[in-house]
Design a protein that fits this description.
The complex is a heterodimer of chains A (301) and B (652).
Chain A (H helix, E strand, L loop, with lengths): L5 E4 L10 H13 L3 E4 L8 H7 L1 H17 L4 E4 L2 H13 L3 H10 L9 E4 H17 L8 E4 L9 H4 L9 H8 L3 E2 L18 H17 L4 E4 L2 H8 L2 H8 L7 E3 H8 L17 H17 L1
Parallel strand pairs in A: 1-2, 1-3, 3-4, 5-6, 5-7, 7-8
Helix pairs in contact in A: 1-12, 2-3, 3-4, 3-5, 6-8, 9-11
Chain B lengths: L2 E6 L11 H8 L5 E7 L5 H14 L3 E6 L2 H14 L7 E5 L1 H5 L5 H20 L8 E3 L3 E5 L3 H12 L3 E5 L14 E2 L4 E2 H14 L3 E4 L2 E9 L2 E8 L14 H5 L5 E2 L8 E2 L2 E2 L11 E2 L5 H5 L4 H5 L12 E7 L1 E4 L3 E3 L16 E3 H8 L20 E8 L15 H15 L4 E6 L9 H10 L4 E4 L2 E7 L2 E8 L4 E7 L1 E6 L1 E3 L3 H8 L26 E3 L9 H18 L4 E3 L5 E3 L9 H5 L5 E6 L2 E6 L9 H5 L5 E3 L4 H11 L3
Parallel strand pairs in B: 1-2, 1-3, 3-4, 6-7, 6-18, 7-10, 18-29, 20-27, 21-22, 21-27, 22-23
Antiparallel strand pairs in B: 5-30, 8-9, 11-12, 12-17, 13-14, 15-16, 19-28, 24-25, 25-26, 31-34, 32-33
Classes of the chains: A alpha/beta (301), B alpha/beta (652).
The structure holds flavin-adenine dinucleotide and iron/sulfur cluster (2 copies).
One iron/sulfur cluster (SF4) binds next to helix 16 of chain B.
């Protein structure tokens, strides 16, 4: 096994608020797997959607500043849990291959952009660098009895040329991890559909429709929970589930986990460490059922 | 040698950016040149007559024409000078169109470059010798590779014309794709009713020898005298005695074999005859599924075969055939659509290909002509057709239009309504390409009389919803998104070159494009010729084509072969290498480098020497550049001739 995995870690702004449990669980999981994370010193917002909708060079400058911070601690490989941050960091690197654009960005920076830093998602390094087979070996508490669908959202793997990870139409990374953790994975047909993203603010009806469809589909295929890898997807499906039920007249009660939370549980970490209490749709019943399954098995043995 | 120079305007093609009169004036100063002029169209009748007259009037010993590429008109002008009594190799061409006027706009620079090219040509011409072709007899048998409708047409036309025909077909039956089709556009006539009798004709024609389940192993020789090694793949059934009774198929316990003829709609037995009308109607064993061949157990077919023709020990067999010409008719294959994740990438059983749908529609197909969903055998109500799957899509490396899927999709929509009057068909399309005779009328019928819902736009996603498939796409005419609840989705999968096309091309020494389709001799004027003498093309191997065009090419290729064989002897090209025996030191380097094996070692008064076999030499000139002694010289492109051109160019 590769024991020398070592990355710079860029948490992104959501990690300090709405997706704090994603950050907690990502850090805890990496620690449990001996993956060393080095916090990017004095990191700042990547600019998120607002920056690139108004000015591409500003957006790239915000990313480039953070990449420079990575380089400042002597690292050239950075990971982040958030697909949205990842897309911004990668887009900046890609755009800066063009000299004219790079010059524009550099004008906004204190020191010229260091373009050598490569960026990946936490999910990608777990699958590609750590390896699913190695994860399987570390499972101490299999997710027996959990019927789960994996939902990737629309930007984790796209555009394919930029993200360079998994299949852009039919990703399997989280499906495979969940399978390795012992869960029963039901193929989720809308895995790369949009949840409505930040339209939750200006046009809530869009999210009600799009995320509603995701929940309807999850229900129809018998998924008892969904796993995600994106703070925005998770928020729309979890925090807004009640609103969606209201708007659509549905009665969903589907816990929406970050994949790292379930991974941590399977590795033997506690619910508290995984921030399970931060979820809006309570996973209590599901987690209890899983625990039950385990005690039944123990008794039998 | 007295030389005449003719500088062509090519209408305005050359004259617009080259001062042809100035080029002619400059040429008059070159050594040997006694006459030079510019002419409007040198290749026209008056243009050629001018050359003939000049040769006679000025007693010319050689002619230079500065005009277009030699690919097209070198032959023309060689005939012209021959008409005036000169040897045709006392002629040179300078290409001032493709190499000058079409690629540069600067008239002065173009004129100077043209002068240089003409100077090179005259210098070479001064060193040209009269060359005389030899005659050789030809073998008037023809090989047809591929037994699809194009190959069948070529074979029957050649055989009816009195030629002996050898046909080699890769699979165990001829018929190609057309044998798998139910009905054909635009007449909606039954495919097997029109093709079946022609397949029988192939089997029964006294002039045709058919090797089915066979492939080309090796091709040697040249036009008029090819030697072909055919690999007859082991069928494990003695075809001389097999009556095609099919008892073996009934009894074979291994019923999970891949049914390629039915495009894997359903399974077949390990020993099988692909379909009842197969030609030849003979059984073969698929070794991947035969328990006897795999585990040495079973042997049931050997017990039940009334003619005792099962032979589990059979090996591949090699046969040599001698022919004078070859027609390649290896057709096409279907694009592997599973690269499209948005269509499910192969995960949904009710998303099928157009050819699978043809098998389903066919009364002799695996479902007996009933349209059924592969998943649950139910009749579909909503059928969605998606066009341009693996066509006109750069992102999957297939930018070209397959050309016949618009038509067969309309056909399949019509047939769907005929089979299931309660059904509703939807067609997602980019454009409708229906350019043949009665074709547009046909697609309109699908829309207007058969109520097919044509939606202009691409499909972005197919996903399962309950036991249906939700097809989501854009309607670009309405500017909206559409979603259709489909029971069955049929993909109009595009055509690509047939598997193994490039390997076969290497054996035939013909060129192919970046997609593996074979290159015709000229895109307009030599549609069924290749650049290798004696090798012709027919059908979809040259590019996707529907049946009428494939058949047209089959007949055209046959006409070319019959034309070639109308002579008893052919002239060999004298532009081959010759060894100067006095200079040759017998080092053998040329023997090693010749890619065609055209040079052999001989004993000359006790000394080792090289000798070129003229009929095999292709005139590539590799030996000439290899020989350390300058002993082997390619005629018409000798070291001296090439150096004189270089000197002419580099004199300043
Ligand atoms: C779904 C579908 C529906 C269609 N419907 C129509 C229609 O209604 N009307 C119409 O006009 N056209 C239709 N077409 C087009 C039609 O199929 C083609 O025009 C026709 O098959 C071309 O004939 P071909 O002989 O050139 O090639 P093919 O039919 O492909 O035949 C080639 C033959 O060569 C053999 N072969 C290949 N490689 C080798 C090798 N190396 N050595 C020996 N043998 C080899 C193959 O096994 C095959 O038997 C349809 C096509 C499809 C896919
Ligand atoms: S024929 Fe029609 S369906 Fe086929 S590739 Fe061309 S445009 Fe597309
Ligand atoms: S390379 Fe030249 S010298 Fe050597 S064998 Fe060939 S012809 Fe003779």
């Amino acid at each position: 096994m590769n024991t020398s995995l070592n990355y710079a870690y860029y948490p992104g702004c959501s990690s300090t608020g709405t997706s704090i449990e994603y950050d907690m669980s990502s850090r805890a999981v990496c620690a449990a797997l001996d993956i060393k994370l080095n916090d990017v010193p004095d990191w700042s917002c990547c600019g998120s959607t607002p920056a690139h909708t108004v000015d591409h060079s500003l957006s790239s400058a915000l990313s480039a500043r953070n990449l420079n911070q990575v380089a400042s601690i002597g690292m050239d490989s950075c990971i982040t849990p958030c697909p949205s941050c990842l897309a911004n960091l990668k887009t900046a690197t890609h755009r800066m291959e063009d000299e004219a654009f790079r010059n524009k960005v550099n004008k906004l920076l204190d020191k010229p952009a260091d373009t050598r830093v490569s960026t990946k998602s936490v999910l990608q390094i777990l699958v590609e660098d750590y390896g699913i087979e190695n994860i399987r070996k570390k499972v101490v508490r299999p997710l027996k009895g959990l019927v789960v669908g994996a939902y990737y959202g629309c930007i984790l793997n796209r555009p394919a040329e930029l993200m360079q990870f998994d299949d852009s139409e039919h990703p399997m990374a989280m499906d495979n991890i969940m399978e390795a953790l012992g869960a029963t994975v039901v193929p989720f047909p809308l895995k790369v559909e949009c949840c409505g993203a930040s339209f939750g603010i200006p046009r809530k009806d869009v999210v009600m429709r799009l995320s509603g469809k995701l929940l309807d589909t999850a229900h129809a295929i018998g998924a008892k929970a969904l796993v995600t890898a994106c703070p925005l997807c998770q928020m729309n499906l979890d925090m807004r589930q009640n609103q969606i039920n209201h708007a659509n007249g549905s009665h969903h009660n589907i816990p929406i986990f970050y994949f790292t939370q379930l991974l941590g549980l399977a590795l033997g970490l506690t619910e508290k460490e995984m921030g399970m209490n931060k979820l809006c749709v309570s996973p209590r019943t599901l987690l209890d059922a899983m625990a039950n399954e385990e005690t039944i098995k123990e008794k039998a043995a | 040698m007295k030389i005449g120079v003719f500088v062509c305007h090519c209408g305005s093609n050359i004259e617009a950016t080259v001062d042809t009169a100035a080029v002619a004036a400059a040429a008059r100063e070159f050594p040997g040149v006694v006459f030079a002029t510019d002419t409007m169209y040198t290749c026209s009748e008056p243009g050629q007559d001018e050359i003939v007259d000049a040769i006679k009037e000025h007693n010319l010993g050689g002619v230079v024409v500065a005009s277009c590429t030699p690919r097209m008109h070198e032959q023309t002008f060689r005939r012209t000078v021959e008409r005036a009594g000169l040897n045709k190799y006392l002629f040179e061409m300078a290409n001032i169109r493709e190499h000058v006027s079409w690629i540069g706009k600067d008239r002065e620079a173009n004129t100077n470059k043209s002068v240089d090219l003409v100077r090179m040509a005259t210098e070479k011409l001064l060193r040209n010798r009269a060359l005389h072709p030899k005659k050789f007899t030809i073998n008037k048998r023809v090989l047809i590779i591929g037994g699809g409708v194009a190959g069948i047409q070529a074979a029957l036309d050649c055989a009816d014309g009195g030629l002996e025909v050898v046909m080699v077909e890769k699979t165990s039956t001829i018929g190609g794709k057309m044998a798998k089709l139910d009905k054909t556009f635009p007449t909606v006539d039954c495919s097997s009713c029109i093709l079946g009798p022609r397949m029988v004709d192939v089997a029964q024609h006294p002039n045709i020898t058919l090797y089915a389940y066979s492939e080309i192993e090796e091709i040697k020789g040249y036009v008029g005298n090819f030697e072909i090694k055919v690999k007859k793949k082991a069928t494990y059934v003695d075809w001389k005695n097999c009556t095609g009774c099919g008892i073996c198929m009934e009894k074979c316990p291994s019923k999970k074999a891949t049914d390629t003829f039915n495009e894997e709609i359903g399974k077949t037995t390990a020993i099988n005859i692909p379909f009842p009308q197969a030609i030849p109607k003979k059984a073969k064993i698929d070794p991947a599924f035969c328990t006897m061949l795999k585990k040495g157990k079973c042997g049931i077919c050997a017990k039940v075969c009334p003619s005792g023709c099962i032979d589990y020990e059979m090996k591949d067999e090699f046969i040599t055939e001698k022919v004078g010409a070859i027609v390649t008719a290896t057709g096409f294959d279907l694009f592997d659509w599973t690269v499209y994740g948005e269509y499910g990438g192969g995960r949904y059983p009710d998303v099928i290909t157009s050819l699978q749908y043809e098998r389903m529609l066919s009364a002799s197909g695996p479902t007996g002509g009933h349209i059924k969903r592969p998943s649950d055998g139910k009749e579909p109500k909503n059928v969605v057709f998606i066009q341009c799957v693996g066509s006109r899509d750069k992102s999957v490396g297939r930018p070209y239009c397959t050309g016949f899927c618009c038509m067969y999709t309309a056909k399949q929509a019509i047939l769907t309504k005929d089979h299931l009057p309660q059904s509703q068909s939807y067609v997602f399309y980019m454009d409708i390409r229906a350019t043949g005779k009665l074709y547009d009328e046909f697609t309109r019928r699908a829309m207007e009389e058969y109520d097919t819902n044509y939606i202009r736009g691409r499909v972005s996603m197919i996903y399962p919803k309950g036991d249906k498939l939700l097809v989501r796409g854009a309607d670009t005419l309405m500017g909206t998104q559409v979603e259709v609840d489909a029971d069955l989705v049929v993909l109009a999968v595009g055509a690509e070159s047939s598997a193994g096309a490039s390997e076969l091309a290497e054996k035939l020494r013909i060129s192919y494009d970046s997609y593996g389709f074979y290159m015709e001799g000229h895109p307009k004027l030599k549609p069924v010729e290749t650049n290798t003498a004696g090798v012709y093309l027919a059908g979809a191997c040259q590019g996707p084509k529907d049946i009428p065009s494939s058949v047209g090419q089959g007949s055209a290729a046959a006409a070319k072969v019959l034309g070639l064989f109308s002579k008893d002897q052919l002239e060999s090209d004298p532009q081959v290498s010759i060894v100067d025996i006095k200079r040759c030191i017998g080092c053998g380097k040329c023997i090693q480098t010749c890619p065609f094996g055209a040079i052999k070692e001989i004993d000359f008064r006790g000394m080792v020497k090289a000798d070129v076999i003229e009929t095999i030499c292709q005139g590539c000139g590799i030996c000439t550049s290899t020989c350390p002694q300058g002993a082997v010289q390619l005629q018409h492109a000798t070291d001296n001739q090439i150096l004189s051109e270089v000197n002419a160019l580099c004199q300043f």
